[in-house]
Amino acid sequence: MEALANIKHVIAVASGKGGVGKSTTAVNLALALSQEGYKIGVLDADIYGPSIPIMLNLSDFKPQAVGEKKMTAANTYGITAQSIGFIIKSEDAAVWRGPMAAGALTQLINETQWPKLDYLIVDLPPGTGDIQLTLSQKIPLTGAIIVTTPQDVALADARKGINMFQKVNVPILGLIENMSFHICSNCEHKEHLFGIDGGKKTAEQYQVPFLGALPLHVQIREAMDSGKPLVIADPDSTISKLYREIAKKTVVEIASQQNSSVSISISDDE
Length: 270
Description:
The protein has 270 residues and is an alpha/beta fold. It has helices at residues 22-35, 52-55, 98-111, 130-138, 152-167, 198-206, 218-225, 230-233, 238-269; strands spanning 7-14, 40-44, 65-66, 70-71, 74-76, 79-83, 117-123, 143-148, 172-177, 182-183, 190-191, 210-213. The chain has nine helices and twelve strands. A hairpin with a 2-residue loop joins strand 5 and strand 6 (79-83).
């Protein structure tokens, strides 16, 4: 795809179920990768509920036309950001059928003037429908990261997400267990509200990497609501370090999968 010619890797961040903290994870992962020295973009592909404008304090940003068929993206905290939320009013609902929504996403990607990027993080809507399939078929995805909570109902949908990407031959870069445990803001007591190790066990079951576990903590929510994500607001916090560890593991996994593909190609030629 010519529109993505400047981008080395495209990573989809997905969840089979809404409400698991996928967008929060995608934004903090993008910023953590930026802090590691990479050139990063984030695409808010959650057509029905774009949240990145609020999370990145970009609610007032409006793309500007560049030439006849291109538009600008936002720049904030050292990353490039694009969202359908920049185009439609925040209080308006995107009442679109699947094919129309998928077409809008494709147009958003094609018409954005992307700079040279090492990684484009794509925050997908929850589920396994038209938008996910369109993205998988029309965009050269490097791989997908699945976000889940340890709760059984979320894990069931996470498995559906893994199966969908595998069916369309998109590599699974790993699984992240969000809201793995709750940390009390007063006494720092740790409690597993939604179960223990569900994400890790699912990763083992499907033989995909387990990238890490993130807590349920008021500090994360407050940072996102303020438009200054935690890895920016408090980069030295324990939770911010967890995001950077996940970012590093993601980079390693991409390199590992690419090296494996090269080895297979060499073997096939022989």
